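=== Given protein ===
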Amino acid sequence: MKTAMWLYLFMFLAFFDLHAQYPILTPFAMSLGAGPAFIGWMMGMYSLTHLPGNLLAGVLVDRNGSRRYIVFALTVAGLILLLQAHAQLPWHLLLLRAASGFALAFLSPACMTLLASLSSDPATQGKYMSGNGIIHTLASVVSPAAGAFIVAKAGYSGTFSTLGWLLIFTGVMAFFSVPKHNPALALPGPVLPVKENLPSGAAATGQPAVSRRYYLLPFFVSCSQGVLFFELPLSQGQDGMVSTGILLSLLSLGALATLCLFFLNRLSPGIRIAAALLGMALCFFTLAAFRSIPAGVVLFLLGSAKGVLFPAMASLFISLGGAGRLGRTFSLQSIAMSLGAFAGPVAAGQLREYVSPYFIAFVLLMTALMLLPPGRSGRLSSYAPGWNSPAA
């Protein structure tokens, strides 16, 4: 439990630092002379460079533990932010965001693997994942408004320098506090049924490989999130940093409200994921078609749906990954989310003149809802219990 508390502290500081940049980056890029299409590529490039980092993290975390990669991600990302404070051209910002995306690609798989490895009991793992969601949301409640406030007082350069030193300090604390090896990587995990037609390597380990179709879920969700983080600051204008920060804080407050409803964890992941996808899709449709409804209300409801969705996704991937595969499973999940976070803002930036980006997000989420949960035929049938069974 002590390790979990330290990890929650590090994640709070890291997520605070990252979310504080959301209302800042678009106005900063505009001040450097960037247009909407370039801003879309800049935000997408950050996610695109996640991919090689995620591919490396999956194998390396399972082999070497999480500590060194948590320290690496936090410290290097902090140094990049110090350089970002002195960016003079849009291309400077693009390159620095790409480098930051690679460095931080190690953070999420390492943190999620360490949390999941603290116990082999599914119920306890679910509590750790819910705690991670609460910490993430608490940080994102206050950080957007705080970031906008710091910019108003210290300017862009002072803000990025402050956030950079905070990440470096967090990395130093992680070096002295996180255990060198994940404590329960060797503990037995949930064993899923093995089919005769599975690849011999998967059958030999007793753990079937997770169907790639499951990763469509984080891809489409991340696409919609990328659209939101692209369009919301742009729609508020260069002078709307404070209002953007407040709206993003309302989004996180909505997520916090449902994350605290622990009884929802008794429902199966499939039910929670389907309901959350529908709720998020309706919120994006409302943002696109009913602009008379206050955006703050819609974003609060959107956040409430997110608070149901993300713990359910974490429970699903834990049950599918099993012991010894958590790093790879969360790495592939991060890859899917990185691809979505790249495709979302890029598509929104290119199509913004023709269709509301919020409608694009609505279509993406409805597509995810129609594709999931998976069918019960073929190889996908062996994963149905992890999708449909009640949570432990």
In short: The chain has one domain: 2-179+207-374. The two ends are 20 Å apart (CA to CA). The first helix runs from residue 2 to 19.
